[in-house]
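Follow-up to my post from last week.
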Amino acid sequence: MKVKVSPELDDLQSLIDQLKKSSREIGAIAVFVGTVRGTFRDEKVLRLEYEAHETLAPKVLEEITADVKKKYGIIDAVAEHRTGKVEVGEDVMYVLVASKHRKEAFQALTELVDRIKTETPIWKKEITEKGAHWVENPK
Amino acid sequence: MENLKVTVRFYASLRERLGVKKVNLQLEEGSSFTSAMEKLAETLGNKADVIFDKLKIKDSVMVSVNNNLVKPSDLTELKLKDGDVIDIMPLPSGG
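User reply:
Got it. Predicted complex:
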């Protein structure tokens, strides 16, 4: 299991290769790639800026990943999220789930991505051509 | 006697709206989280409504103490120690 909160993501193919090597039982690897969208409603997005709680973000990310791994009985997982400035079209988040079969890989991937977005103390500021605003979680 | 010092740090949109990164509070020994928040609201003055709704912490805010997230239901009776660091954060919006 690997988690990372950092200005840079690891190479995606290397992450897939590392997962494949971790067990001979792996028959499916589900991958989520979050990228920066170039529009917000009718506004043109220039870039995003991410802030993370330096200590808590990796800690929570690790707890969530371990929790989902246990819940779905998957073999291994990776979760990485960028911080700092991220330009439109760039990757911001990699989540990979390795399992014996695809069904639990898809289920675990969906839950893990959802929980990373709603539970990990990382915050997104959207810089558009009309100004900057923090994206609020609609609780 | 005020001999308990705690630091309150703010993150992301809360930090920008408050215009400060952190506030140091001097409290009486044995103070609870609730009394610290009363003092914080007093310190923040007319900006207190960024975090509080009638002296209660808003649902849109999450709290950690010494890098451990604390559920809202556990905050009320929480006793603070000298040197504690309270982080007040908006709900996550990553991804």
